[in-house]
Amino acid sequence: MHSSSLLLKSCFLAANLLVLMTLTGDKELSICPYGWTQVGSRCFTYNQTPMSWDSAKRHCWGLGANLASVHTYWEHQRLVQLLGNTPVWIGGSKGLKTAEQRGQRGGRNRTR
């Protein structure tokens, strides 16, 4: 596989602490690396290493990947078909903290 054909790598982490990683490629991507399953133009693999969401995110980064996102309903359906009822973590954010939550100006003073 040519590195120029890869646009992005990403990962999933199951809530029962299993890792599912994905590679996202361009339309020319037709063969996934050994141990990966192709879903559309993306490749997925599953790793049963227990870890938290933050640890999984760092694990994915160590592989040159990110926690994945599901892009289409069809992709979601195919992943459910592959994983059964296994709940999974997906990428995203924990949300932005407000100034008050960060203890910055404009928020309540937390040092009383």
UniProtKB/TrEMBL annotation:
InterPro entries: C-type_lectin-like/link_sf, C-type_lectin/snaclec_domain, CTDL_fold. It comes from the Eukaryota. Keywords: Signal. Residues 1-25 form the signal peptide. This is Type-2 ice-structuring protein-like. It comes from Maylandia zebra (zebra mbuna).
